[in-house]
C-alpha cells in the first residue's frame, strides 16, 4: 500500500479508566502504527479522580515517549464523552481523526487501510472491524464477525447481518462494508469533514444517542459510513458503562430527542411511540443544529431510509394493519410482556394500554408476518404458543392471514387460529372455532 500522505491523530477519551487497559491501548497504537502515518496520540482526560491517572500517568507517558507523540489534555470540569471528543478533536493537529475507547488493542496493520480510504474519499467515515478482548482475562479473543450497524426505533444501536443488497455489491471479503449506523466508540474521519458537518451536537450531554446522530448526519449530508475488514481493533466489552453518569438524568432519552427533532422529520413519531414519557420534556435549543442541516442542504430522513437502510421495517407504513391487536371480549391486547426483544420469547396478552405502551404495537406486514420491529410470530403446529423469532420472509411458519369479517388471525401453514388467554399469560394457537377468544381487532387498518 502506498504512502497515503495523510497523518492521523488518535484521540482516546477516558474518565477514571483503569491504568492498565489505558496504557495498553496507547502502547498498541504506537507499536502497531507506522511512525510516518501517526501524528500524535491525544489522551483526553475528562476530569478523572483516580490517583493513578494524575502524576503517575503523566510521568509514565513522559518517560515512555519522550518525543511527545503522546499528549495528555485535561478538561477543567466533567464534560461527558460527547463534549470531550469535540475537545480532543479541537486539540488535534492531524489530517484524520481516529477516536478509540480507552480499553482497546490495535492490531498489526490497523491504521493504513483507514488512512488510504480517507485519502481516496475524505467524506467516508470508517470503522475498523471490532474483535473481542475478554473482560475477565484481558486476552485478545474471538475475531468479530462481519456485521453492520442498525437501530431500534427507540434509538438504541443494534448489530445486524450484512443485508443481501450489500453482499451483492461487494466483490470480495475485503471490500468495504457500507453500514447505516456505527456503535460510535471506534471510528476514523477526515478532520475537516468532521468539523464541516458539525462535529458532535454539544447540546447533548455526557453519553448516549451521539453515535446514531452522527451516523444519520454523515449519510444525509453527503458522506458515507463504512466498515473496513482489513482494519481490526480489539475492544473490551463491559457489562456496565465505563464512563459513569453524574446524575440520574435520562441522558440517552433527552439526547435522542434532540436527534429526532433535528434529523428524523416525520419519522420521529416512531421514537415517541416508544418514549411517550419524553413528550413535552425540555431538550434544549436546537436552532443551530437545524440551521446546520439547512446550510449543508442535507437530505431527508426518508431518503436515508429508502437509500441507506431500505431493509428497516417501518411499523405503520406499507403494512396491512398495525397498532394494538385487541381481543374485544376481554379487552386484552397482544403484548411482549416486557421481554428483551434481542432474544426469542413467547407472546402474551395484557390489559390494553390505548397507545401508552409500545409493547403492544404489532404490524401485519405485506409479507403476511405478524410482527414487531425485528421479530415475527412463529409456530410449527396447532397448539403451539407463538414465539417471537427474528423475521425471515422465507420462513412459511411465520406467515399469518387476517380475516376482518370474523376477526380471526390464521396461521397459513397449519390453519391454526391465534387464541387469547388470561391477563399476563402467553397466547396459544388452537383449531379454529367461533370462540370469542379467537377474535381480534387491529387498531389501524391500511388495506384490509
From TrEMBL:
One of the Pfam families matching this protein, by short name: Glycos_transf_2
Superkingdom as given in the UniProt entry: Eukaryota
InterPro entries: GalNAc-T (IPR045885), Glyco_trans_2-like (IPR001173), Nucleotide-diphossugar_trans (IPR029044), Ricin_B-like_lectins (IPR035992), Ricin_B_lectin (IPR000772)
UniProt keyword annotation of Cytoplasm present: no
Xref: CDD domains: beta-trefoil_Ricin_Pgant1-like, pp-GalNAc-T
Cell compartments where the protein resides: Golgi apparatus membrane
Annotated metabolic or biological route of this protein: Protein modification; protein glycosylation
Signal listed as a keyword: yes
Family: Belongs to the glycosyltransferase 2 family. GalNAc-T subfamily.
Matching PANTHER family: N-ACETYLGALACTOSAMINYLTRANSFERASE, POLYPEPTIDE N-ACETYLGALACTOSAMINYLTRANSFERASE 1
Protein name: Polypeptide N-acetylgalactosaminyltransferase
